Amino acid sequence: MMKSWQSLALLTGLLCKVLPAAAIEYALPTEGSRLIGKNIEYVVPNDGHSLEQIAAQFQLGLTNLLEANPGVDPYLPRPGSKLVIPHQLLLPDTVHEGIIINLAEMRLYYYPKGEKKVHVLPIGIGQLGAGTPENWVTKVERKRANPTWTPTENIRRRYAARGETLPAVWPAGPDNPMGLFALYIGNLYAIHGTNANFGIGLRVSSGCVRLRNDDIEFLFKKVPVGTRVQFINQPVKKSLEPDGSRYLEVHQPLSRSEEEYKSNGIVPLPMTPALTRFIASKETNSKVVKQALEQRTGIPMRINNKAATGEPVNHDELF
To answer: Following DSSP, what letter does each residue of the chain receive, concatenated?
Structure first.
């Protein structure tokens, strides 16, 4: 049974190139393919770093590492142990344009106009009860360096219930919860930085999309006003590759209620008709599909039926 990792929010390549303190840049795959990147095997050094620090080093959110490495100690991973750094991904099933935010995997995809590449950045999103919008298409309305923060009445009440009084307007600066850069989308939301050194890959915000400060600075400099922004919620991604390989990438769905939140991580997966047909194909290995749906590692798993391809399938193919 999968252990719940969501409570941590309360406590705190082949084709892949890591850019200095910014995003992970992937070359777009060939036509008809969604598979990008390559996973990395990482041996934990004896340096006392937490999983959050390792996640930041590899441009991941904390949840990405927890999904890919079930059972790892998030506070002090055991020195000498091996971690999977999940840098292999399936592109979301939507247009390759502008900014795509997949809430379920807590990643932001940015497709620069006219370039055959995609930048992938980890994000933090809204808490349960203060959810980030989903199934929404909008655009970058404006950008601002050194933003101020004007908390809404609901946010002020939520903080007051914890004994904290917020100012009417939080002045700009490094202590501002919005960080040093913001991209405003729609009327109520923003993609912005943070004044904390944790929370990326977790449900911690009041509804906005939160990035590490180097990442939001990268986006701020690169993304023009007017850029299309789409919010999706795809915990299960699939791909039929040009060579006939079939992949599933399964993430833990977001809890939608207190009951689901307390269910020890067992949140039902949404099964669309297209996904059901894909899984039910005679070319898929039902045992591997079951493993992918149960383990929810966030890593693309090849699910081909050996008999359908005439080739052996390595069920442990992570690297």
So the answer is: -PPP-GGGGG---TTEEE-TTS-EEEE--STT--EE---EEEEPPSS---HHHHHHHTT--HHHHHHHSTT--SSSPPTT-EEEE---EEPPSS--SEEEEETTTTEEEEE-TT-SEEEEEE-BEEPTTSPPP-SEEEEEEEEEES--B---HHHHHHHHHTT----SSBPSSTTSTTTTEEEEETTTEEEE--SSS--TTSEEESSSEE--HHHHHHHHHHPPTT-EEEEE--SEEEEE-TTS-EEEEE-PPPP-SHHHHTSTT--PPP--HHHHHHHHSTTB-HHHHHHHHHH--SS-EE-B-HHHHSS---TT---
